[in-house]
Structure to design on (343 residues):
């Protein structure tokens, strides 16, 4: 029996060495080591042997199996390296200038791109980035922002209520009071995040969208500081001079309050569905923090003043990239998102 093995070893190694193609080596592998291969067949005789013989034969057969496997693998490698060399030198139809197989890279969502950009601008001015829960307490979303129950301002912010009395936050403004309570004054923070409203959707309204809240509190902060920071923000984001207008706006948590509008970049101010045919996009409501709100945050309004703003991140991304319908952003349509992938 042992002789049979050493014979098989000699012929097998010879045959593998002589093989000239990978197909040939594969055929040999099956013939020798496959389920019905020569070595496998030999092992079937094991059951007829006595214990001593079986032990010795088993060991030899196993050693041969390992040896042949190794030689076969080596031969495969050698042949495939040869194949490449051959086709390169034969000048056949191997064209190294052909483009490779393309694979798709993922991309950041346009809102994320704009958010990161604004975070960069504000952290450069010494602001910290803070966070708040999307399922928010009624107190932070309304009361602490000077919007008591039955205040008509709640009508404009209808949302989804949870059974435990919380709600899906209608804006990022609740982060104002959370940040004041946590860090006190002086304070410079921004809070980007997802917001929700019970809206009928159209080109500029969605039930889910992103805002970025900002707040600066210190001694002697004034409207001049507010306007300076807002202008800096917009010119950095658009990398050019933008046309804006400031008009009075009412928000219970600021006094005075403003609406900062941006000349519509989709239509250039002529009027289109995105700007509701007005030529202007409401982008940056802002104002001086109401004394009641400072008090809710545990800050003395006699000592400190501050400004706050609530930037429509989703709208800003639409303006920056010329996206005319907000619904595209949550649609999951790859044709829209692929345009932002890194090539
Ligand atoms: N939270 C307001 C909204 O979603 C926007 C807003 C207005 C935020 C004025 C502010 C602000 O910080 O000062 O309608």
């Amino acid at each position: 029996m042992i002789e049979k093995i050493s014979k098989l070893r000699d012929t097998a190694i010879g045959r593998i060495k002589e093989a000239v193609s990978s197909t040939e080596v594969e055929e040999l592998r099956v013939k020798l080591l496959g389920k019905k291969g020569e070595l496998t067949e030999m092992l079937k005789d094991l059951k007829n042997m006595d214990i001593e013989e079986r032990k010795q034969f088993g060991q030899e057969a196993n050693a041969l199996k390992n040896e042949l496997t190794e030689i076969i693998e080596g031969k495969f490698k050698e042949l495939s390296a040869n194949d490449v060399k051959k086709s390169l030198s034969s000048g056949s139809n191997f064209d190294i200038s052909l483009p490779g197989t393309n694979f798709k890279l993922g991309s950041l969502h346009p809102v994320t791109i704009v958010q990161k950009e604004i975070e960069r601008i504000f952290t450069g001015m010494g602001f910290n980035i803070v966070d708040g829960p999307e399922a928010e307490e009624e107190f932070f979303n309304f009361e602490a922002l000077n919007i008591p129950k039955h205040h008509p301002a709640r009508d404009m912010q209808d949302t989804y209520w949870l059974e435990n009395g919380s709600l899906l936050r209608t804006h990022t403004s609740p982060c104002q009071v959370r940040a004041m309570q946590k860090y006190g004054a002086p304070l410079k923070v921004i809070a980007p995040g997802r917001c929700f409203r019970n809206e009928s959707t159209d080109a500029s309204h969605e039930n889910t969208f992103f805002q970025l809240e900002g707040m600066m509190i210190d001694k002697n902060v004034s409207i001049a500081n507010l306007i300076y920071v807002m202008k800096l923000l917009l010119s950095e984001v658009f990398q050019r001079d933008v046309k804006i207008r400031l008009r009075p706006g009412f928000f219970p948590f600021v006094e005075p309050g403003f609406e900062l509008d941006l000349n519509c970049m989709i239509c250039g101010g002529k009027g289109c569905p995105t700007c509701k045919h007005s030529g202007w996009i409401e982008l940056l409501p802002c104002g001086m923090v109401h004394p009641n709100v400072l008090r809710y945050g545990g800050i003395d309004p006699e000592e400190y003043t501050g400004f706050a703003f609530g930037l429509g991140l989703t709208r800003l991304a639409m303006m920056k990239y010329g996206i005319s319908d907000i619904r595209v952003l949550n649609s999951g349509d790859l044709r829209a998102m692929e345009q932002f992938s890194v090539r």
